[in-house]
């Protein structure tokens, strides 16, 4: 009978440094696991949208808009870093998770499309994110409250800029109005997911850690309707909602985005900057 292969020293070293728990072991603290899940949702939303907006760098309609989108992308990536740092190693969470482990909503991973669709997506998301962060600034979790209190000031600008472009394009030429209407219609089916409350989120809401998006659903609809009225645009017809992003169910677009975003850290995992 052949003998077993010799155990190399580096294998022994890796074994000693390996964590005691396996990937599928139950977390030691269920509450902490829920908080980690929630801040990953918040961080993933911001990071994926920041990556999407960075694709406009050098391609926006005019230089001023190019700079605005780049600055919004940097704001969002900064927010993502802060939220993901609460959950653990932000760099590892950003660059070494596979697509099924991401918890962002479907809206932020959608392709940019034309400029009108990008601004429609930004308008729908930033209006929601601004209202959410206003409430998260009062979270019982000190880390979440601190990040939200800083981020809400940045997102107020994101929301204002996006709403301004919705009005300018919607109340502009026939072509710009058509494109904005098309962009809103494309994004509309992803809005219901922003207000979905699952068991994990419900528990955190009860503890005062998370904000309940259902509490500002009416305010959100009113804000969207007011801007669309100013833009002389009708509200898109309700569509079958697309859900599942918080549970790792995503469109094919996210995988392509991550392949680009994660390429260098995965190809050169030992690299330092």
From TrEMBL:
One of its GO terms (cellular component) is cytosol. Signal peptide: none annotated. It comes from the Bacteria. SUPFAM superfamilies: Ferritin-like. GO terms for biological process: phenylacetate catabolic process. It holds the Pfam family PaaA_PaaC. This is Phenylacetate-CoA oxygenase subunit PaaC. It comes from Sphingomonas rhizophila. The lineage of its organism: Bacteria, Pseudomonadati, Pseudomonadota, Alphaproteobacteria, Sphingomonadales.
């Amino acid at each position: 009978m052949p003998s077993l292969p010799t155990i190399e020293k580096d294998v022994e070293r890796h074994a000693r440094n390996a964590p005691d728990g396996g990937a599928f072991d139950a977390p030691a603290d269920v509450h902490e696991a829920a908080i980690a899940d929630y801040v990953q949702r918040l961080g993933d939303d911001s990071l994926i949208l920041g990556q999407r907006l960075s694709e406009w760098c050098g391609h926006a309609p005019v230089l001023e808009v190019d700079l605005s989108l780049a600055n919004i992308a940097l704001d969002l990536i900064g927010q993502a870093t802060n939220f993901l740092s609460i959950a653990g190693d932000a760099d590892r969470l950003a660059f070494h998770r596979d697509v099924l482990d991401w918890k962002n909503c479907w809206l932020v991973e959608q392709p940019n499309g034309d400029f009108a669709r990008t601004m429609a997506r930004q308008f729908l998301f930033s209006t929601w994110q601004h209202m959410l962060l206003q409430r998260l600034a009062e979270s019982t979790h000190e880390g979440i409250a601190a990040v939200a209190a800083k981020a809400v000031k940045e997102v107020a600008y994101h929301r204002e800029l996006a709403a301004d472009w919705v009005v300018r394009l919607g109340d502009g030429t026939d072509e710009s109005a058509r494109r904005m209407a098309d962009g809103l219609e494309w994004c509309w089916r992803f809005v219901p997911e922003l207000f979905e409350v699952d068991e994990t989120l419900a528990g955190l809401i009860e503890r005062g850690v998370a904000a309940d998006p259902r509490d500002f659903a009416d305010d959100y609809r009113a804000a969207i309707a007011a801007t669309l009225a100013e833009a002389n645009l009708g509200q898109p017809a309700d569509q079958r909602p697309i859900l599942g992003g918080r549970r790792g169910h995503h469109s094919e677009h996210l995988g392509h985005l991550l392949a680009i975003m994660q390429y260098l850290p995965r190809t050169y995992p030992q690299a330092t900057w």
